[in-house]
Amino acid sequence: MSLGNSIRTLLGLSGRPRAAARAPRPDASGPLNERRAHERYKTRERVRIYLTSHPLSAVLLDISQGGVRISTKHPREVNSEIFIELEFGDTRAHLPVRILWDRFVDGAFESGGSFVGLNEQERRHLAGFMQSVTSRGDGASLAD
Question: What is the DSSP letter of 16?
């Protein structure tokens, strides 16, 4: 058994090791950008997240077609799946998010996650929600 597999076993991690992260790609302006497939938009939208049938309060800090960054009072477990409730107009959807990281920042816990297994209806709802964020003016691109 390799050292990496031994450590994974001791930590209670199962499955295949994750692929190594790709290096950031430089853009035309010179500095290295974060490895992001989708443009992110800042917001301070109050949302609900669900770990069980009981909602918890969270603040949506940024959103993209690929995932979210939220702030909560309590930490989220990395690799856990939550559902984030996004409302726009008179519709709401509960989109599945896999938590990729969690850290304590300025008195709260920030978590970043990726949407997982969205169907076409959920993708349309996400697109509509993002359009509503950017049209209100509180969705400044983080690429700016």
Answer: S
Whole-prediction pTM? 0.69
3-state secondary structure of 121: helix
The continuous run of DSSP H or E covering 123 comes out as: helix 120-136
Task: Give the Cα separation of 62 and 50 in Å (integer).
Answer: 18
Tens-digit pLDDT profile for the chain (144 aa)?
433 333 334 334 344 333 333 333 333 333 334 555 778 889 999 999 999 889 999 999 999 999 999 999 999 999 999 999 999 888 899 999 999 999 999 999 999 999 999 999 999 999 999 988 887 665 544 443
Going by their DSSP bridges, the two strands 67-72 and 108-115 should be labelled as antiparallel
Domains and their CATH numbers in the chain? 42-144 (2.40.10.220)
Q: Within its chain, how far is the Cα of 27 from the centroid?
A: 23
113: exposed, middle or buried (Cβ count in 10 Å: 0-12, 13-18, 19+): buried
